[in-house]
Design brief:
Blueprint lengths: L1 E3 L8 E3 L4 E4 L15 E5 L2 H6 L1 H16 L14 H6 L1 E3 L1
Parallel strand pairs: 2-5
Antiparallel strand pairs: 1-4, 3-4
Length: 93
């Protein structure tokens, strides 16, 4: 499940107990700026996703608000280095 990064959380990915949350294509070689950098991925078993459904709904809502606020993470070719602190950063939910 892909979820848009929240600009209020500095575009960091959340740490959710019992769920694997990953950056998308962090080290992709084929593009100068990796595809999907504006999202993070929830990778887990359906039962773990269902246990955290309220948190996930809130995170999806935060992504929608990021779109409404016009703050979707966007980089130009020469700004790839800005991804490092985003990919390294996280916050607990």
């Amino acid at each position: 499940m892909l979820i848009l990064r929240d600009h209020y959380k500095n575009y960091f990915r959340p740490i959710i107990k019992n769920l694997h949350v990953a950056n998308i294509r962090e080290k992709q070689i084929s593009h100068k700026i990796p595809w999907g950098y504006a999202f993070y991925d929830i990778l887990d078993q359906p039962e773990n996703i269902n246990k955290n459904i309220d948190i996930l709904i809130e995170l999806i809502g935060n992504g929608i608000n990021t779109i409404k606020d016009g703050k979707v993470l966007s980089l130009k070719k020469n700004q790839k280095r800005k991804l490092k602190p985003i990919f390294e950063g996280s916050y607990e939910v």
